[in-house]
Amino acid sequence: MHSIPGRRLVMALFLIFLLLPIYWLVNMSFKTNAEIVSTMTLWPHTPTLQHYRRIFTDESWYSGYINSLEYVVINTVISIAVALPAAYAFSRYRFLGDKHLFFWLLSNRMAPAAVYALPFFNLYSAIGLFDTPWAVALAHCIFNVPLAVWILEGFVSGVPREIDETAFLDGYSFPRFFIKILVPLIASGIGVAAFFCFMFSWVELLLARTLTSVQAKPIAAIMTRTVSAAGMDWGLLAAAGVLTIIPGALVIWFVRNYIARGFALGRV
Amino acid sequence: MDKTINQKAWFLVLPVFLVVAFSAVLPLMTVVNYSMQDTFGNNQFFWNGVGWFKELLDPSTDLGGRFLASLGRNLFFSAVILAIEVPLGIVVALSMPREGWSVAACLVILALPLLIPWNVVGTIWQIFGRPDIGLLGYVLNHLGFNYNYVSNEVDAWVTVIVMDVWHWTSLVALLCYAGLKSIPDAYYQAAQIDGASRWAVFKAIQLPKMNRVLLIAVLLRFMDSFMIYTEPFVVTGGGPGNSTTFVSIELVKIALGQFDLGKAAALSLVYNLIILIVCWVFYTVMTNAGTERKAVAQGEPAAEPKPAAAPKPAGVLKPKEGVA
Fold first, then answer.
1. What is the pTM of this model?
2. Residues of chain A with C-beta less than 8 angstroms from the C-beta of B31
3. Does B211 reach chain A within 8 Å, measured CB to CB?
4. Which of A1, B99, B109, B311 has the fewest CB atoms within 10 Å, i.e. the most exposed one?
């Protein structure tokens, strides 16, 4: 009943709209540069893997993917680890300044990265973390930790309070209750929160680019540099782009059943 | 569900507080410090008081002119984005298939643009829109439109807006879909018994149920479009001229391009303040909506054990029957 007339058509049109630009990128990544520039072809007439081969054999390219994944994983782990207890606290207790604290966290999620680019650069240079994955991971905490708290709070609130009380009556200590009972109960919520931390850390470029120079340069930054330097190697650019889409697509597949609820921040 | 008062809960929140304070408060202090000073390079700073702020809010100066112009562009951009993405997102959510494998497939495809790094989104559209090698630009130009996002301001705007619709409508759609999924079937059955029209069902059942998620969607979309940087930067670089230079792009130009730390810091603070105010308004509305809902839920505790959902929407729908 919750559908509208012509819904198949609407959905199909929208999905085509979403997929067409991506198809074009994939299409270009398999073309030779000569074919890209000289003719307009809807599919690669002389398909080639040269661009992918170049990325997988050239260290300056593939190290970018490793760097990116490195800080994304560090960031996800930190965010979830600190957000879990806080989510529990916000969900179960009232304490001095809780509402203000929650709002303050929320406002950090909304703060523009451009504002922080320069001060982060100074801060992380001063403490010697500049150009390491840790700098980017910590910097991304500014928007991922509040988001994780927000999502997890929704999921923790979905767990009946009686469960806590029963566990404490059974003699569980707080840490033991937390790890043995609460965490398994909100496992899907943790998955969703991790997904979102992964996602926002993976797609962010401005801070990642500002806080790295050589050692920890993310793939996104390597892409922008090559575009300007090597003339216009469209095929290579397209291939690099396609490879950045793949981790995201894989992660979506794992959380597909929780995506909708996750996007509502666990609050439906 | 009253929460108990427990000050020890602060210990649980402390790690979050420390992590976020480290990456939010410390840098912000630096910004405040810079915003009061002027620099001529070589790390030499001069006290400038509130000079930058005065200049920033005065459209006749260079800094103020640039700031207010980019702010205007940004607000216009956000308004257009919201006007397109919210209705479109609702329509897409309503068009979702009901069950079967196609649901999962649609969800995955919908979520796909959200997981593409923002500069790659820019790259995709940069390529897609080029008249020489991009499908979109090629087709448009062969249909007789003189489309070129590099030189024409209107085309640049259209490209940036279509790109954002492509990128983020899915978020609104997924949020609305989550809201729709939470509506029990009993509501629809009741509506059917009442002979409610399609439109009445939407207005009386689906829209109110989506209220909360729509609020989140509008908040997230407004904020993210208000601080948009990477995608238009990659596609248009803020041009042609300054026509697609949004506040973030202007800020990065001043801060990392010209290294005008004082000006950039003052701009950052005002920018942040605007966001904080909008954020606060949304937060208040959102928490109020939450408490209202709780109050309604507590008002009818007797209805809990029965599947009492059915009579309620029927009552809501009654007046609409005449229309339907």
1. 0.83
2. 115, 118-119
3. no
4. B99
Per-residue pLDDT tens digits for A134-168:
999 999 998 899 889 988 888 888 888 889 889 98
Q: What HEC string does chain B produce?
A: CCCEECCCHHHHHHHHHHHHHHHHHHHHHHHHHHHCEEECCCCCEEECCCHHHHHHCCCCCHHHHHHHHHHHHHHHHHHHHHHHHHHHHHHHHHCCCCCCHHHHHHHHHHHHHHHCCHHHHHHHHHHHHCCCCCHHHHHHHHCCCCCCCCCCHHHHHHHHHHHHHHHHHHHHHHHHHHHHHCCCHHHHHHHHHCCCCHHHHHHHHHHHHHHHHHHHHHHHHHHHHHCCCHHHHHHCCCCCCCCCCCHHHHHHHHHHHCCCHHHHHHHHHHHHHHHHHHHHHHHHHHHHHHHHHHHHHHHCHHHCCCCCCCHHHHHHHHHHHHCC
pLDDT in tens, A91-142: 888 888 888 888 888 888 888 888 888 888 888 888 888 888 999 999 999 8
What pLDDT, on the 0 to 100 scale, is given for residue A255? 78
Supply B176's token pair: 């609305």
Q: How confident is the model at residue B316 (pLDDT cuts 50, 70, 90)?
A: very low
How far apart CA B8 and CA A266 sit, in angstroms, is 25
Picking from B102, B120, B223 by the largest number of A CB atoms within 10 A of its own CB, the best residue to mutate is B120
Mean pLDDT of A68-92: 92
Contact B26 A14 (CB under 8 A): no
Q: Measured between CA atoms, how close is A161 to chain B, in angstroms?
A: 8
Residue A26 confidence (pLDDT) above 50? yes
CB A102 within 8 A of CB B9: no
Say if the Cβ atoms of B280 and A103 lie within 8 Å: yes
Scanning B273-292 for CB atoms below 8 A from A yields: 275-276, 279-280, 283, 287
pLDDT, one tens digit per residue, over B58-84 is 778 888 888 888 899 999 999 999 999
Q: If contacts are CB pairs under 8 Å, which of residues 243-262 in chain B contact chain A?
A: 247-249, 251-252, 255-256, 261
Contacts of B268 in chain A (CB under 8 A): 114-115
